[in-house]
Amino acid sequence: VLKCYSSLTAPFIIYMKQSLAILSLAAAGATALREPTDRPNIVMFFVDDLGYGDLGFTGHPTTKSPTFDKLAKNGKILTSWYSGCPVCSGSRSALMTGRQFVRLGVPGVFGPTVDDGLNLNETVVGKQLRKAGYKSAAMGKWHLGQREVYLPGSRGFDRYLGIPYSDDMGQARATPCKNDSFPSPIIGESRWEETWADYIADGHARSTDSVNPDPGGEYLPLVYQKDGNTTVLEQPLDFSTLAQKYRDFATQAVEDFKDDPFFLYMPFSHVHTTAGNQPERQYAGCSFKNSTKRGMFGDALAEADWIAEGVVDKIESLGLQNNTIVLFTGDNGPWMIMGKSGGSTGLLYGRASGYWNVGKGSTWEGGVREAAFAYWPGQITPGTRTAEVASSLDLFPTATKLAGLSLPEGVYYDGKDLSPILFNDEGKSEHEFLFLYGGHHCNGNGPSAVRYGKYKAHFATAPGMSGCSGCHPICYEPLMLFNVDEDPSEAYPLAVNTTTGPYADVIAKIMAAKAEEAKTMHYGTLVKAPDQPGEGPGKYGVCCDRSKNCDCNGAPSF
User: 304-307 contacts: CB < 8 A, separation 24 or more?
Assistant: First the structure.
């Protein structure tokens, strides 16, 4: 404006500058009027397929994760955080609802062209917090149904940008970088069905999800939602520019929502492996390729850290850090069959299993125990840590409490409020028994394992996703018991297939709790939302233009 009116006098320009300064102070004051604990902003970093051993703050020697490490150091590290499921959709549904995914009827994994999703009568965090005046945005992998009616913009979130499912469920482009040592990906070289078969074989997905071929499942889409409108920005999307788009979206959301309490949910598409047409089945933008000593996985994780850095910097630049709690964890353990591209379980290697594949898809510690921290200046004591049991199930009740709300009536919640362990240095977990579903189970259904104080009991065990040679599921009568405070590597069982001995009392309490769990557990079913215009068999996938077979951005650039 000032450039357009170059003839304005200097006094008037000074007046305008002073007026703008006053307006800026007033805007800052609007935020400052809210006390730090009055409906604090909530940021949830949720990294895809991240292993317990993948971060600097959990001991990896060459990982570059300075933002995550700094937040962990200046907050509270939660060393016993458990996923709600050892695979993707189940984990996210537990996080978003505070309920075990089996109560919801959600499969372990939704395919990219399914006709259903998380039931519409389930309240997710974004919708819950809206009751307290929160604005909300989601960035990244949603994976609770890709039809518009199931996406974040229809579930209480004000805006969304992301890939609506795993980044191996379709092919993508990657614009080459200068001095790129990797070949450009070739569209058509690999299909998502190659890995989808593993999900079905391991019981995490439904074989019927791929009955009706849909070109919407061929290419990864980048979906944007705002003000009730949904747009496919790219298909196939470009991995070389994805992180910049994510960072810009997330920081803009913080800027736009700064005068309101906000919930920023960031389920990163990183560091899940991709379809086979990407080098090493991983990706990173040009600024991060070959930037770490850890190869392509390390580059991808460094890029995710950079996205988070942008959000933290924006929060601090706006003076919102004392009004904002930041939580961090992963959705499940690493997909170990993917080798160096799939992450690391660290010390959670399930030694008693006798095999190496104890990550994603299993309820060994490596599959469900996640790196985690909480950060909130002035409220959480910096440089602290706790081994008290926490879970992704706990986000919903914790966010509800922080927002000054009550849990919805008539709904059974498995999650607990984390406040006692977050804000009290000697606080105790409200989880007496935390049951773990989604691994192998016997006798039809039921939990695979349970955490009880320092103890963990397996009712059944099996290798992680895609299995391994000579590995077999095992059912225990009644259980196999570990002290995972002393033995997080699950190397030394305290009891196997017995109810007697020195741990008889512990075993009896666990079995009694399992019986009570069975009484409260209702295994849900999914109710398909009515078809919307243009939908039907073979037409449920996200598609930019069906006349172009959902290929609107062409083959990779060379």
Answer: 304/47, 304/243, 304/268, 304/270, 304/271, 305/64, 305/65, 305/66, 305/67, 305/68, 306/67, 306/243, 306/247, 307/243, 307/246, 307/247, 307/250, 307/266, 307/268, 307/270
What's the confidence (pLDDT) of residue 523?
Answer: 96
Look-up of token digits 């690391």: 344
Q: Please calculate the CA angle 360-101-232 and round it to the nearest 5 degrees.
A: 80
Residues 64-122 have pLDDT tens digits of 999 999 999 999 999 999 999 999 999 999 999 999 999 999 999 999 999 999 999 99
Alpha-carbon torsion, ordered 345, 350, 351, 352, to 10 deg: -170
Q: Is position 440 annotated as part of the catalytic site?
A: no
Pairing, β 262-267 against β 222-226 = unpaired
Backbone CA torsion sign across 357, 361, 365, 370: positive
Active site residue 272: no
Q: What is the Cα Rg of the chain in Å?
A: 24
Tokens of 387: 């081994």
Mean of all residue pLDDT scores within the chain:
90
Instruction: Find residue 238's DSSP bridge partners.
Output: 173
Q: Which amino acid is at 4?
A: C
| Cα dihedral 125, 127, 128, 133 sign | positive
How many residues make up the chain in this entry?
558
Q: How is residue 425 annotated by DSSP?
A: T
Strands (E) in 345-473, as ranges, are 369-370, 373-375, 384-386, 390-391, 434-436, 449-452, 455-461
Q: The tokens of 166 are what?
A: 């795993």
Annotated catalytic residue within 4, 60, 85, 88: 88
Q: Which structure tokens are listed for 386? A: 């706790």
CA distance 156 to 521: 27
Token pair of 98 as six digits: 């505070």
Q: What one-character-per-residue DSSP string does 541-558 give?
A: S--S-GGGTT--S-SPP-
Whether 47 contacts 331, CB under 8 Å: yes
229: CB partners within 8 A, 6+ apart: none
Helix, strand, coil share of the chain (percent; to 5): 30, 15, 55
Catalytic residue, candidates 60, 143, 272, 431: 143
Question: pTM for the complete prediction?
Answer: 0.91
